[in-house]
Amino acid sequence: MTLSSVDAAKKRSAAYAHLRNCNLCPQLCGVNRYETTGMCLIGDKAKVNVIAPHFGEEPCIQGHNGSGSVFFSMCNLRCVFCQNHDIAHQRNGQDVTPEELGDWYLKLQDVGNVHNINLITPEHIVPQVVLSILHARDHGLSLPIIYNTSAYDSLASLELLDGLVDIYLPDFKVWEPVTSRRLLKADDYAATARKSIKAMQAQVGDLCFTADGIAKKGVLVRHLVMPGFEAEGARIMQFLAEDVSKDCFVNIMEQYRPDAYVGRSKKRAKQSHKNQHETEGEGEKRYSDINRAVSADEISVVRKAAETAGLWRFCDPAKHDGFNL
Questions:
Q1: Residue 29 annotated as binding site
Q2: Mean pLDDT lowest for which of 96-105, 170-179, 259-268?
Q3: Domains of the chain: which residue ranges?
Q4: Within 85-188, where are the H helices?
Q5: Which among 145, 263, 306, 320 could disulfide-bond with 237, CB atoms 3.0 to 4.6 Å apart, if both were Cys?
Q6: Which stretch of 9-23, 75-89, 227-241, 278-292 has the lowest confidence by average pLDDT?
Q7: Ranges of Basic and acidic residues compositional bias (predicted)?
Q8: Closest by alpha carbon to 67, among 249, 248, 213, 215?
């Protein structure tokens, strides 16, 4: 709300320029999105799957009235275990212009009476998001903006968002490049996430709240504990404490389930020897090492590592009827 008209005009101009030569996310596709698409398969319009008040977020995000969630289709990652793959891996939904998107924010505010506008998986449509926020601001939007991301963001996109986003909600998934290459299809994920989260922290600081416990401004980091990768989770907690802030608000999530491509049958190579063909093998599953639920011990390892590193603000169930601050 404090952005000057000059700065707003500069951001609009930069957003349009990025659409004409899209190198804003780490994929660096370099395409003109008015004419074609890059890796994310999205053009100059955002594709929206769901817009509605949502009650599946952290208590301090959803509050009593819900978070005004906007689920964008597609993503700039291809996580094999994606817990939201029916949206993030498929081009389902409605194409909307930035102005139409901004109008939806106003409907969520004025009709839905939500606590915030929650932009879910927006890394690949930052120019459209910037234009939509500026449009909504000019027409009366006053709610906090949440940027709900995988943390696979470039510093250029975060610079464009500076002054427009109140709450950053990054998910730091894995630590090792070999893991991100295999499971996220992005070698540089961890290095990018580290830079991105530090830039987010520099912009908005530690998470702070309204008097009634609703998140108002700051960074909330999520980590989905993966089966067999608790050591990487522990390393992520150490990074957050040492390089971001010991007051960082962290949600150590335990709801991993095998999904997307995990557990699907492997396809064997078909060979032609006269009339002999090898067909799809039964019993062999893809990504079998993560084809199970996470254990209580694995979650405990990550939590203890976080506490040992000095982190203390966790998204735990409140011991009273309110929210944890």
A1: no
A2: 259-268
A3: 5-264+284-314
A4: 85-88, 98-110, 126-138, 155-161, 177-183
A5: 306
A6: 278-292
A7: 275-287
A8: 215
